[in-house]
């Protein structure tokens, strides 16, 4: 199996940051095609992330001793392979699947990042046996605690959970950071407040595009790889700022509506999971865009979805959804 090496080099072309909006438009969250889904498995409410390859669906479990649980895509009746939270390959606290990377999902490889131990885990599931091949690699000690990891040829792009004031996401290469900030005109009275611009991030290096969707503000934006914003999409008629806590100390997460709560990309499309409620009590909306930022379609579900993944053919979506027994349903959704 080919081993993945990440040679980090600072992008020299990052000089055209936020040079202005080239395209802006609104999308109506109330309109869309209602789609059906099928419950393919149920589980305790302990899954927190999900990923799909040609042959497998993998889940991350924050409570079980088997932190990674892998099922064959056509058989959820039994666990196929797993990774122990503590074993021969070390300890894993709360690893996360990358949003995009350079692994070939056709070979079923999966890449995870563990912030606590600053390392990557490349998993190579196979059709037979319980043992899954694992390769680990250290990350730079300068890397900040982050989510929404995307690995491209010369950089890591991610969203920091530490330096989250006035930053959307960052590039990291050769031990240096380049921070991408929101436009000055976007909520100017909300600058310097933690979590206002918390975002989801997906990158498609092959088409020179970055999708960034805010969690607490109803805005989705597209950038080129040189950090120039190309498209800005507003969900609904008005920009809706978050509710702030006492003394403007941060976002009132309990009472602020959640907008984009997850986002995934395929080679052709970006899927933005939109909630719009304060307590995840409503059915979900999925906005589909191409990588130029063009709105393709809007899907509506009666279930409240929490996490989504999409197969490479853009025909099926697998989602985690809360159920009435305080557990999780794994749903299969036909997209088209």
Element order: H for helix, E for strand: EEEEEEEEEEEEEEEEEEEEEEEEEEEE
Q: Poorly predicted ranges (pLDDT <50, ≥5 residues)? A: 1-22
Number of helices: 0
Radius of gyration: 19 Å
> On the 0-100 scale, what is the average pLDDT?
89
Cross-sheet strand order for the largest sheet: 1-21-20-19-18
The first-to-last residue Cα distance is 35 Å
Q: What composes the largest sheet? A: 5 strands, mixed
Please give the share of residues in helix.
under 10%
What is the SS-derived class? mainly beta
* Global geometry: globular
What portion of residues belong to β-strands? 35-45%
The count of β-strands is 28
Q: What can you tell me about this protein's structure?
A:
A hairpin with an 8-residue loop joins β6 and β7. It is globular, with a radius of gyration of 19 Å. The strands form seven sheets. A five-stranded mixed beta sheet has the order 1-21-20-19-18, with no helix packed on it. The protein has a five-stranded mixed beta sheet with strand order 2-25-24-23-22, with no helix packed on it. It has a four-stranded antiparallel beta sheet with strand order 3-28-27-26, with no helix packed on it. It contains no helices and 28 strands. By secondary structure, the protein is mainly β. The model is unreliable at 1-22 (pLDDT under 50).
Provide key terms for this protein.
336 residues, mainly beta, five-stranded mixed beta sheet, 28 strands, 0% helix, 44% strand, globular
């Amino acid at each position: 199996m080919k081993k993945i090496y990440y040679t980090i080099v600072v992008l020299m072309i990052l000089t055209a940051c936020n040079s202005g909006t080239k395209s802006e438009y609104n999308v109506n969250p109330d309109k869309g095609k209602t789609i059906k889904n099928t419950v393919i498995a149920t589980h305790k409410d302990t899954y927190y992330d999900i990923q799909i390859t040609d042959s497998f669906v993998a889940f991350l479990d924050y409570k079980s001793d088997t932190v990674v649980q892998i099922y064959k895509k056509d058989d959820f009746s039994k666990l196929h392979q797993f990774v122990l939270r503590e074993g021969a390959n070390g300890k894993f606290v709360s690893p996360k699947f990358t949003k995009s990377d350079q692994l070939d999902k056709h070979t079923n490889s999966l890449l995870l990042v563990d912030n606590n131990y600053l390392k990557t885990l490349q998993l190579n599931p196979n059709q037979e046996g319980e043992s899954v091949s694992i390769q680990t690699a250290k990350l730079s000690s300068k890397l900040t605690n982050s989510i929404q990891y995307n690995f491209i040829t010369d950089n890591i792009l991610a969203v920091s959970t530490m330096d989250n004031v006035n930053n959307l996401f960052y590039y990291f290469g050769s031990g240096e950071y380049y921070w991408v900030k929101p436009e000055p005109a976007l909520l100017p009275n909300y600058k310097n407040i933690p979590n206002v611009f918390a975002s989801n991030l997906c990158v498609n290096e092959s088409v020179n595009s970055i999708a960034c969707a805010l969690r607490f503000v109803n805005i989705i934006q597209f950038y080129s790889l040189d950090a120039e914003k190309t498209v800005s999409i507003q969900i609904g008629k008005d920009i809706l700022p978050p509710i702030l806590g006492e003394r403007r100390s941060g976002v009132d997460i309990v009472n602020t509506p959640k907008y984009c709560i997850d986002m995934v990309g395929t080679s052709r499309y970006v899927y933005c999971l939109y909630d719009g409620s304060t307590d995840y009590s409503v059915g979900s909306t999925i906005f589909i865009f191409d990588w130029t930022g063009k709105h393709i379609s809007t899907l509506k579900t009666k279930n409240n979805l929490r996490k989504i993944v999409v197969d490479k053919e853009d025909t099926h979506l697998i989602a985690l959804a809360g159920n009435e027994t305080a557990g999780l349903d794994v749903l299969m959704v036909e997209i088209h």
